[in-house]
Please model this.
Amino acid sequence: MIYFDNAATSKYKPDVVYDAFMHYVREIGTSPGRGSYSLGVQASRMLYQSRKKVNAFFGNPSKTNVVFTKNSTEAINLFIKGFLKKGDHVLISCYEHNAVLRPIHSLYENGLITYTVLPEQVLESPESELEKYITPSTRLAAITLASNLTGQLVYSAAFGDECKKRNLTVFVDASQGGGKKLAHMERDNIDYLAFTGHKDLYALPGVGGLCSKAPLTFPPLIQGGTGIHGEHYTNPEIYPEAYESGTLNMPAIWSLKTSIEFLEENLEKISQKEQLLTQRIISGLSSLPNVDLYKPTKRRVSTVCFNVKGVSSSDVVSYLDKNGICVRGGIHCAILAHETLGTVKTGAIRVSLNYMNTEQEVDYFLDVLREMK
Amino acid sequence: MIYFDNAATSKYKPDVVYDAFMHYVREIGTSPGRGSYSLGVQASRMLYQSRKKVNAFFGNPSKTNVVFTKNSTEAINLFIKGFLKKGDHVLISCYEHNAVLRPIHSLYENGLITYTVLPEQVLESPESELEKYITPSTRLAAITLASNLTGQLVYSAAFGDECKKRNLTVFVDASQGGGKKLAHMERDNIDYLAFTGHKDLYALPGVGGLCSKAPLTFPPLIQGGTGIHGEHYTNPEIYPEAYESGTLNMPAIWSLKTSIEFLEENLEKISQKEQLLTQRIISGLSSLPNVDLYKPTKRRVSTVCFNVKGVSSSDVVSYLDKNGICVRGGIHCAILAHETLGTVKTGAIRVSLNYMNTEQEVDYFLDVLREMK
Model:
């Protein structure tokens, strides 16, 4: 079986990640911040080490400012619902995932905020274009790091610079591309960054988070037991505990800490391999006359998007599946991106590779597609 | 090391649970509802089987109505923030965990709802007492199944009956006691039930949920990608997908399905062992003259709560830790329960056992405590 759906989740993890997860489960197995016995204190130490690792990886000048969540969707909701205030105007890109669009559109429908979807030319030429979309109420730009549909990089340091000149807060959804070290909070003017562990960060499922330069001060999304200050009737004003009510998924957090270490050691090799595979698949798809390939731009992660002329994307997915190849079709939880590409009615086929894939797999995929009747 | 903090999390799981988790991770590894290729469909089937297993275990007349969350705190927040409307009056028990108290108190502070904390006699004699606390606005009773501090059962079928007579909606927080098959939604008149996997249900961390007799219709807590109906700008009105935005922690869900099967097969043995250990520890603690034992009632789970006269709970925890015993002291994320017991200032020591503990461990603990200077 050939697994080409790494943008949904990386099915295979480095062995050290499985080992770290099971080490936590078998040897520690307790919850941080709950018991003051030695093994509880050790859990808290491991949580602290994990916070430092994540923030260093994302270039956060604050070494420990991360709220761990279950996935990036929770982190995005925590941020959007907590940060935005009545009357705010928000800029989002024409490639945002529904995880960003939907909470923002709901606030808009409830009459709380307004928002504008930035077209592609603003993302490409923010210096000349961004100004046109800013109103006196504009407070936030929420931009995806990379499109989950086309793989192109959407956020750029240049865009961040223009936001900073205008005192806008910058939020980046790093669900795609988070593991490529493409987003650096300090260098790229990112105030808040959401990530998920189970995609290109190679952690086991069940952990994501929200990194921020400053501690959060807005209301938490979820209230409950915080381990400390249990005597308050509401969540105490302490960071990050007030934002992590309930038991944390500590084995997954520890697997994330370990997977980031793995990435740090192997980033160059991973990047080279993924670039090679991506160029090969783009080149192959480009040579097929019946294929519409979307946005084969250079600044990208290893996800590509196409359609076969006259064939529905679900039929292509089904045909590839019969030939042992897993790819995703239809609408990819990113309606704005489909509107941008003009693929709302047809859907699209997404192939998302990672370094564990091989040139042979890519060639086999291209052969199978070429032979499609 | 003796682990007596099972009410925080069950450190040790049955081997079949670790195996099920790793089976999912290694052999499946995909996300349900995302890819239509065979392995994606298989993931969806395993999710469906897990929904059925959870609902059967909790006696839900609806076979598949469960929203999977990261833990019970998220499930409780989803319910409380979604279900309650402006002007509602809520009844909660004097033993509620902060996971219930804090979201409710926040709604109260925001001027949206009012609530009353029911004293113990209402829980014990709902037939004669409940009526006194009901107003024309009372819409919900939110009651914990068992106290996380004292281990006593708080919710009862008799209480549920009285609620039903008055058309109140009943919500039960089964974070404690959920794995003992003590709550049966149909039999006990429970409309909504929140649970967490990692405590006495013996799943790996990262899964909880909200079971309901009817599909949810209120707004979700978290919005984002739902796998299906990706074309909508807001979460589509579909259940349960609209309430499970983002990638589910499917390996943990599968570990929960397996741990419930383990419980179903071994419930009688587990129950007998836990009762034996609990009686032994209650009997031992009762015989110590310097120990204040709280609520050693019969209707209980295997958690007991006490203080040593004249010694702070943190000193006792520390002393026990030096002797290789893990218990929790202080305030246990349940300020109402401490107010009920009169232990707000002192905190309290909680010993929470499960079937993997032994009589020898209990006896050693009692010996160590007896010798405390």
Summary: Chain A touches chain B through 87 residues (CB under 8 Å). The longest helix of chain A spans residues 250-286. The radius of gyration of chain A is 21 Å.
